[in-house]
Please model this.
Amino acid sequence: MAFGDKMVRIAVDAMGGDYAPEEIVKGAILAAKEETGVELTLVGRLDILEDKLTGFDAPGNITIEAAPEVIEMGENPSWAVRAKKNSSIVVGMKLVQEKKGDAIVSAGNTGAVVGAAFLILGRIKGISKPAIATIIPTPSKPVLLLDVGATTDCKPQNIFQFAKMGQAYLTNVLRIENPSIGILSIGEERGKGNELVQEAYGLLEKSKLKFIGNVEGRDILFGKADIVVCDGFTGNVALKLMEGMAEMFFSKVKSTITESFASRLGGLLLAPGLKKLKRKLDYQEYGGAQLLGINGVCIISHGSSKAKAIKNSIRLAADTVRKDVVLAIKESIENDRERE
Amino acid sequence: MAFGDKMVRIAVDAMGGDYAPEEIVKGAILAAKEETGVELTLVGRLDILEDKLTGFDAPGNITIEAAPEVIEMGENPSWAVRAKKNSSIVVGMKLVQEKKGDAIVSAGNTGAVVGAAFLILGRIKGISKPAIATIIPTPSKPVLLLDVGATTDCKPQNIFQFAKMGQAYLTNVLRIENPSIGILSIGEERGKGNELVQEAYGLLEKSKLKFIGNVEGRDILFGKADIVVCDGFTGNVALKLMEGMAEMFFSKVKSTITESFASRLGGLLLAPGLKKLKRKLDYQEYGGAQLLGINGVCIISHGSSKAKAIKNSIRLAADTVRKDVVLAIKESIENDRERE
Model:
C-alpha cells in the first residue's frame, strides 16, 4: 500500500456544517490525538481557528490554512464555487489538487463540495458522473448505497458506473470480497421500475458484477445486497427518509416511556438495549460518505455532524487514502476497457 | 350527496393479495356486518367462495360474482389484464363499468389493477396519468402521498395533476380545508431536486394551490405538508422504505426486550405504549390507497392485507363513493379550464 508508512495529510473544511466551526475543530482535535500517522489542516477563517485551537489545547499535528470566505449551506453550489475562490471548500480542494493534502473532509454545502471536487480535482477517466456513496447502518450488516445526491439526473450508464465504483470501494476499502449489487426499484421482478432502472438493469445484467437484480426500499434495511445503486435523487430521498424515520421512532419511544410511572420504569430497564440499538443505527458512527468518481479522496460528512462524526470522517478519509480507492476505481474501469 | 341514503355496492376482488381468498372473505364479512348501507360482491372462483361464505356464516348483503381466472402477484400486468378477461380484477372492474358496482377494492397485483382501471373505466377528462394516493400514518397527522406507484415515469404536468387530485380528495373526502401541498425533493431551497421536480415546481408555484415548495423525506414524517406529490417511482420507493423501517424497528425493539430478564420486565411495562405507537404507524388502520384519475372509485389494498385491512378498505371505498371523489376531481379540473 502506497501510504502504509507515510503520513496522511487531510484538509478539514472547518467552516462547513451546522455546527461549524466549533464541532469541526473539536472533532479534528479528537482525531489528531487518537489517530496515528495523520496531519490535519483546518481550512477556514484564521482569526476564529487560531482562537479555537488555543482554547482547545490542540496537538502539534494540526495546522491552519487561511480561507476567509464561507460557502453557506443554502447557497447555490455552482455559483458559490465559482464566485468564492477563497472559501474553505475551494481552498481545501486546492490543497488536494496541489498534492499538499491527500484527502478532504467537509460537512459543508454538499452541492458545493461535489462541484468543487469535479472542477478542481477532475473526474476519473471513464467515469462520466460522480456519486456519493454512504454506508447505511442496518441491523444485519452495513449496506453501501449510492448515489445519494451527487447526480440527480442519471443515464443508465451512470448507474452502471456507480455499481463499478461501489464494488471497487467495498472490495478495496472495506475488504468485502465479491460484493452483491442490487438496483433500487419498486418490485423484485425484472421489468419493474422506471425506464432508467429498466435500462440500467440491462447493463448490469450483462456485466461481470455480482448483480442480484431489483431490490426494494425495505431490502436495503434487511441486507439483501451489499451495494444498492440508484440515481442521486432517489438515493437522497431514501437516505433522508431513513434518517427521519430513525429520529421519529426514537423520539416517539421516548415519549411513550415518559407517559406513566410504569412506562418510565420500563424505559429504565430497557435503556441499555435501546441505546445499543440507537448507536447501531446512527450514521455518526460511520463517519460520512465517499464522493466517488473524482481524482482524489473526498469525504462528505453529514451537515449536522458533531465532533464524533467529524472524527470518524477523518479516520475514514485516512483509511480511504491508505487503501487507495481512486487507484482501485481506475483499475476497475481500465480492466473493463481491456476486455472490450 | 348523491349516495346519502342509497346503498353503496362494492366489488371486492376475493382472489388478490398474499392472504387471498381467506382473509379477503373474512374482511368482507366483517365489513358487511359492521357497515350499514353497503352491498358487497365477492369476485372470484365460485367453488372456493361459496365454500368460504358458508363456513364463515356470511350475512345477506354479500353475494358472489364468478371469475374463474386469477392474475398472480408477479404476473406482467399489461399482459395479464388483456389475456385474463375472466380474472377477478377484470370482472370486478367491469361490474363498476356496467354500473353494477360503485367501487372496487383489490389487494391484488397493483399494476394489473391500475391497468384494468385505466382500460375499462377510463381516465377522467383532463387527467393524463393516474396516481395512487395513500395516507402515510405519522405521529403528528396523516399525510397524503401520491403517486406511490401508478405512473413511474412522470412529466411535470403529471405531478401538477397529482397535486390537483390530491387536493380534491383531501378537501372532499377527508374534509381538510385548503390543504398544503409540497413536492418531494432533496433540499428545501427552490432549485433543489432533479429536472422533473424543478419543472413541476414552476407549474405548482403558478397555480392557485396552497403550494409550500420542496419537502424532504423526513418532512413527510413530521407533517410539514398535508399532501406530498412525487413521481410514482420515488413515491413507491419511499413508501416501501417507510414500511420497512417501521417493521425493522419494532422487530429490533422486540429482540432488545428479549435480551435479559430486566429488559423483558421493561418490555412488559412498556408494552401498552409500544402497542399504541405501533397501531398509530400501522398502514392497515388506513385501509388502502386510492387510485385517482380514473372514472370510478378504486381502492388498492396492500398486498399483505389481512381481514382488518380489507374491512377498512371497504369502509374507505364506501366513504369515497358517498363523497364522490370522481366528481370532485372533475370539477377541480373543469374550474381550471374555465379560468384559462
